[in-house]
Amino acid sequence: MKIISNLRLVTKKNFYSYALLLMAVAAVTFFSSCKKYEEENVPGNTAPPDQTVDGVIIENYVNKTYISTLGREPDSTEKSFALNLLRTNNLSVSSRYQFLDSVFVKEEFKDKFYERARIDLLQGLDTAEITFQILLIEFVIIPSITGTPDSIFIDTYLMERDRLLEMKEIPDSLHAGVISYREAHRRCVNNSFYDQLNMGAFNFVVSMFQHFLNRYPTSNEVTAGVDMVNGSSSVIFLTAGQSKNDFLDIFFSTKDYYEGQVGVLYRQYLFRDPNTLEMNNGTLLYMNTGDYIQLQKSILSLNEYIGI
């Protein structure tokens, strides 16, 4: 009995060791019986690019650009041209600019620019209202005061009419290439409608800084701007002037205005402010060339905008 008991003890003690040994032997036998395959490189047998991903990125880029600049999606012809151009050239920088040229050459961009300016600066002023005010001055107000004591104000009303006419003619003038986009901005704030929305010299000056420079003017800028708009001699942006027209001429010629436009476009297209390098490069590009479209293309051609 003692011998049998010891045998059982040994068997029970080593059971798991024997089991592990058997499993290891079985594994070696199995893998040694498997056929081995070596990786072989076949010349020219390169995996094709993932056209599905590339196609989606390019198509989104085309659609987003049309919507952002023209307020609509491309038609079938426009889309086919853009996709073929960008895919064939593997979305190269030159093909991006060629595509953007095809978008900005469309006359409707100028109309869209004017529409955006009226929304941002004049609370969406209807062009029909501009026409009505012009007719009111020409056919009602001026004839009614001619030959009366109030006729001394005729020159003032004629000036208001001329300012409204200049604003009304912005789209046609842009199409004809006789004014710049900067001049279009100037005309949008140099009229009776903008004056009514921002009554008084103080509000006018503050609104100019906030609309175009995205900041509040300093106390010195407020004082100088108000004095100049009111007809007093003053200095703003290191330049002297003594009228509202002088203020506008100075304001739209400053580096600050160009910087402001760079910031506006980055926020419009990339939903962020430009960094220091982007601000400097964009400002110099716009100041040196006066080309508002080129500035936009420099942003719309970025990988960040495309989404790659």
Structure commentary:
The protein is an all-alpha fold. Among the domains are: 51-106, no CATH class; 108-197, no CATH class; 257-306, no CATH class. It contains 18 helices and two strands. The chain has a two-stranded antiparallel ribbon. Strand 1 (234-236) and strand 2 (239-241) form a beta hairpin. Helix 7 packs antiparallel against helix 8 and helix 16 (276-289) packs antiparallel against helix 17 (292-300). The longest helix has 20 residues, at 51-70.
Can I get a quick summary?
This protein is mostly helical and 308 residues long. It has helices at residues 2-13, 15-33, 51-70, 76-88, 93-104, 108-122, 127-145, 154-168, 170-176, 181-189, 192-197, 200-213, 219-229, 244-251, 255-270, 276-289, 292-300, 303-306; strands at residues 234-236, 239-241.
Low-pLDDT segments, ≥5 res: 1-13, 18-22, 24-53
Secondary-structure element string: HHHHHHHHHHHHHEEHHHHH
Fraction of helical residues: over 70%
- Sheet with most strands: 2 strands, antiparallel
Distance N to C terminus: 82 Å
* Strand order in the largest sheet: 1-2
Overall outline: globular
Structural class: mainly alpha
Q: Please report the number of helical segments.
A: 18
List the helices and strands and how they pair.
Elements: H1 2-13, H2 15-33, H3 51-70, H4 76-88, H5 93-104, H6 108-122, H7 127-145, H8 154-168, H9 170-176, H10 181-189, H11 192-197, H12 200-213, H13 219-229, E1 234-236, E2 239-241, H14 244-251, H15 255-270, H16 276-289, H17 292-300, H18 303-306
Antiparallel strand pairs: 1-2
Helix pairs in contact: 3-4, 5-17, 6-10, 7-8, 12-13, 15-16, 15-17, 16-17
